[in-house]
Design a protein that fits this description.
This protein has 283 residues and is mostly helical. The protein contains eleven helices and no strands.
């Protein structure tokens, strides 16, 4: 004798409702999506316009003024891109500030919670930030330097100038890479500190303090060798050397190669630290 039949028992398996399927495409997230998101965020904030705008103004403005005050004979011993160096020595600061703000601004506003909720893969988000920032910073720096270099070539590129050939543009390219690495270092420091003012202060100290400390150490005979090393491996001297200024004392390092390798090692360590910290720390 069978028991009473319930409505559930009368419903066959074939008649049960199927799981919901969205009519919209749901592609699997990848790095390209994160890059597009970071690009949108970078160009949507005013800090990008102010920092990169000040960089262009410094490099191009001071560089063109320097070109106007030179003669063709002045470029016998220096490259045509040398006038861009005057503005770039100061312009490296906006690049570092933008690198810091690329990530600390999200921590300051709390937007980082939304970012990591939409994209839980923190390593992917951080990689996208590095890629987008590096591309924008490098193109802006090199574009500004190229404007000054072309102006020098047009206005002062006589028979007495431009004897360095293509090598001067290679020097300028390596200098732009160096400044971009400084910005990436700023991004890494910002990711670890999560505080805009603190990270900017650290980066300014890394750039401005070594020349002062090196000069102070050089005053004492016993500490003079250490002072010489500090003076030889700081950012301003490295940029000048990379731009092909042979009068800069950098010891036996040809073309600033040692300075670039040092910055690559420091930036690589900081980037690795940023991945470790961001990956395990609460937001």
């Amino acid at each position: 004798m069978t028991g009473p039949t319930t409505p559930a028992s009368r419903t066959s398996t074939a008649e049960r409702p199927k799981s919901y399927s969205s009519p919209l495409e749901t592609p699997r997230p990848h790095l390209g999506h994160a890059v597009a998101s970071e690009w949108t965020k970078l160009i949507s904030v005013r800090s990008t316009v102010w920092t990169l705008g000040s960089l262009v103004l410094l490099v191009v403005g001071i560089g063109l003024f320097a070109v106007s005050e030179t003669r063709s004979s002045d470029y016998r011993d220096v490259p045509l891109t040398a006038p861009a160096l005057f503005g770039l020595l100061v312009g490296q600061i906006p690049v570092m500030v933008l690198g810091v703000l690329t990530i600390t601004s999200e921590y300051g506003t709390g937007m980082i919670r939304t970012t990591l909720t939409a994209a839980p893969d923190r390593a992917r988000v951080l990689t996208a930030k590095y890629l987008v920032f590096a591309a924008v910073a490098f193109l802006t720096v090199f574009g500004s330097v190229a404007v000054v270099g072309l102006a020098s070539a047009i206005l002062r590129g006589g028979s007495a100038a431009g004897s360095h050939g293509a090598s001067e543009w290679a020097h300028a390219l390596s200098g732009c890479v160096y400044v971009t690495l400084l910005g990436m270092l700023g991004l890494a420091v910002g990711a670890m500190l999560r505080h805009s003012a603190g990270a900017i202060a650290v980066m300014l100290g890394l750039v401005t303090l070594p020349p002062v400390i090196g000069a102070m150490l050089s005053m004492w005979e016993t500490l003079a060798p250490f002072g010489s090393i500090v003076l030889r491996y700081n950012a301003p001297v490295a940029i000048m050397r990379l731009f092909g200024l042979s009068g800069v004392d950098t010891g036996n390092s040809a073309g600033g190669t040692a300075q670039v390798l040092l910055l690559v090692l420091v930036t690589g360590a900081a980037v690795a630290g940023s991945y470790a910290v961001v990956g395990r720390r609460d937001v």
